[in-house]
Amino acid sequence: MQVYGLIGNPVGHSLSPPMHEAGYEALDIDAKYVTFEPPAHEGAAAVAAAERLGVAGLNVTIPFKQDVLDAVETDPLAERIGAVNTIDLSGDEPRGYNTDAVGAVRALDHHDVSLDGTAVVVGAGGAGRAVAFGLADEGMTVEIANRTASKADDLAAAVPGASGHGLDALADLLSDADVLVNCTSVGMDEDETPVPAATLHEDLAVLDAVYSPIETRLLRDADEAGATTVDGAWMLLFQGVEAFERWTGESAPVDAMNEALRAGL
Ligand code: ATR
Questions:
Q1: What pLDDT score does 15 carry?
Q2: Residue spans of the chain under pLDDT 70
Q3: Which residues form the catalytic set?
Q4: Among 77, 102, 162, 193, which one is least packed by beta carbons within 10 Å?
Q5: Ligand 1 pocket: which of 147, 207, 212 to mutate (most atoms <8 Å of CB)?
Q6: Containing H/E element for 107?
């Protein structure tokens, strides 16, 4: 039996175990997915311990995504993002990847959103970084808007072709944009949005990285404006799907994993 898992602190409410285990069941793979909660700053030690114990793969969440960088051979995209959320322990060396970036790309692609033109990424924290690099790698022009504009500028300097802005630029930026991704925590457990409703329009596809609640105020506003909407569970799903495929070498049973994830939300 293979063991996969998640390291984070806290990991109590993670939806990854049911999502991954639904995938193993659908493909008849003999595997378990378990959560581990090492103390802060023990991420690298936890990776080494998991490797010794024969764990085949790890997901990594807050606060360990940067912590484990030194413990793994990092793939180029994860290196540029500066964060690892998926580790393959099946080879001679632990290999680190960032499937958050690809998760956003695949969530949009799954909804037939074409990934050319301009994307506005709101937020310049960990999620914003991953999404900005992911969309730029797809060839999109990325505009980053953040409450603290200097952080948007710093991130934009690292992302090919990107520019940084404050939130006051949103109306201008969105009038010409094709894709909008909310990567701030605004809307999580509160009925607020970082994007004024009047700036949304029907030619936009809107992805909200917030998945609790599943229908955020931003997505309701986007729907009312006639935009295509993609909820945060799709992004969570596809980061998991991408990890599943790296570990097992199989095409993931997306529907089964999606159903298990949404049942837990
Ligand atoms: P994550 O790893 O989930 O991206 P983070 O690194 O803490 O979390 O980043 C949170 C993001 O949400 C930041 O872009 C933050 O903006 P600042 O850089 O200005 O702090 C943004 N954010 C959080 N609360 C916000 C609010 N009330 N209004 C606008 N942006 C907010």
A1: 97
A2: none
A3: 65
A4: 77
A5: 147
A6: helix 99-110
HSE-CB of 190 using CA atoms within 13 angstroms = 7
The Cα 80–Cα 159 span in angstroms is 9
Q: What is the pLDDT of residue 137?
A: 97
pLDDT attached to residue 149: 98
pTM of the model: 0.97
Q: Is the CB of 127 under 6 A from ligand 1?
A: yes
State whether the beta carbon of 251 lies less than 6 angstroms from ligand 1. no
In the prediction, which pLDDT does 23 show? 98
Q: Are 41 and 67 in contact (CB under 8 A)?
A: yes
Distance 247 CA to ligand 1 centre (A): 31
Ligand 1 atom at minimal distance to the Cα of residue 129? 4
> Ligand 1: which atom is nearest the Cα of residue 184?
12
Which ligand 1 atom is the nearest neighbour of the CA of 167? 29
Q: List, in order, residues 6 or more apart from 65 with CB less than 8 Å away.
A: 83, 84, 85, 126
Give 180's strand partners: 120, 206
Beta bridge partners of 118: 141
